[in-house]
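Homework help thread (please don't just give me the answer)

Our assignment gives two proteins as sequence + structure token strings and asks us to describe the second one. The first is just a warm-up. Here they are:
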Amino acid sequence: MTPIATGWAGAEAWSMVPPAIGCPPREQDSDVWVRRLSSHGRARESAVEDLHALLLRAARFEIGRRERRGGVVGSVCVDDLAVQAADDALVAILAKLHTYRGNSRFTTWAYKFALLEAAMKVRKHPWHGRELPLEADDSTQALEDGRASPAGQAEGSELIHALGEAIAEVLTPQQRAVLVAVTLNDVPIDVLAERRNTTRGALYKTLHDARRKLRNRLAEDGLALDLERR
């Protein structure tokens, strides 16, 4: 049975997937997958092995695709990251097997887990072993380079100065660290969540509150800055 990529890219993305990504020629219906994975003993072990093989092929493809588009991975790391992605996807699928309702083919549902895990591994890889930039000391300079208009350097400098003061004065240390890391230094949200032992949802809430505070403070000074694009 051939899985169909859904969600992140739709049908167009599936057209790029080589035949090797699919299941073995003999099709397995969705109910067969669920029944095998819900069984016991050797039957379940065999099903888990088959599913892991499918997830591994999908993860290798996705990581390779992202590497060709500029991801810094390396040939050795592709396989290592793919195995990690397949392992994590398998654990997630087995834990959520009871939530599968048959609205799509089982392999479609499972394939999405591999894609998401592979994408996450690629995003995290460049930050492995690196210290996360959480300080705001030079953060406004990054904004100045991208925001200041050639025709309005004075206005741009005023805005950047006001933003720097607002970051220092109205944000809590947590809000400041999250804003600087995610918005100014492009730290992936899942990397930051892992390092700070929290959730993506909690960080998104912190980021939303920080942006709201900054917009309000700048509005009081008669200034405006689109922080959503950063």
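The one we have to describe:
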Amino acid sequence: MFLFSQGDHLIVTEDLYGGSYRLFEKLFQQFGLTFSYVDTSDADLVRQAIRPNTRALFVESLTNPLLKVADIEKLSALCKDRGMLCIVDNTFLTPYLLRCLDQGADITVYSGSKYLAGHNDTVCGLVAVKDPVLAEQVYFHQNGAGAVLGPQDSWLTIRGMKTLTIRLDRQQENAQALARWLSGHPKVGKVYYPGLEGHPGHELMKRRGRGFGAMIAFEVIKPQLVDQLLMKTQLISFAESLGGVESLITFPQVQTHADIEPETLERLGINNLLLRLSVGIEDKDDLIADLAQAFEGENA
């Protein structure tokens, strides 16, 4: 955000991570930046949102938590044509599954705390920049603002990246199995996972990437089941992080996306029935059994 100046406008993914929304709306808006939130899985909507003072598109390659898929190649071409930067938060997919810079993006950002480090034991952010001149600008701001990772956190992240592909292969295998199981469960109303053939972004991800990731969102059929699943799973932990070797379940409406206005959450479908599941490397049959026993608890 330090690349931009007072009066600049950015287009942003509408169902994005709540922390990014908080950064834009609570911090950088006071310095004169403005933001428009659109469905970035639709390039036409992005095109319609461009203003004369639009300087960048900030897009999640796979959105948090509804797992919509963005066509990075098409959006990058649009940005280049309009003289805008294309910035991609690729945290959910990592460079292993989607190489955004190769598809035309100018900048990719990652919560390295998640899949890259992979063990829920460090806090890390990463920025990768395609153009050397732009990279120097980013580095200047990083150095000036003091956003520098400590040696121990750097070591933990490098250690985790050595096993990234092995972990993600297992996590994706597990996620595919869990998504199919959830799709057939009578107490589940919707399942959001791009690895399912009926997902709107399934074919695009098959063409552009190397996999579908290991994040699942799903809606249960009644609110009482939310508390039941959060409290009664035994192998799957109720916690906010994601991307580690342990499976975690969260309630986005009151956790990760609590800073977004209630009417916006409702419009987007981030409601009181939606749960987000970060699938780990445990045995998939054990994970399914854990969810099954939680669904059949005393409040079912």
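TA reply:
I won't write it for you, but here's a hint about the kind of observation we're looking for: The mean pLDDT is 95.
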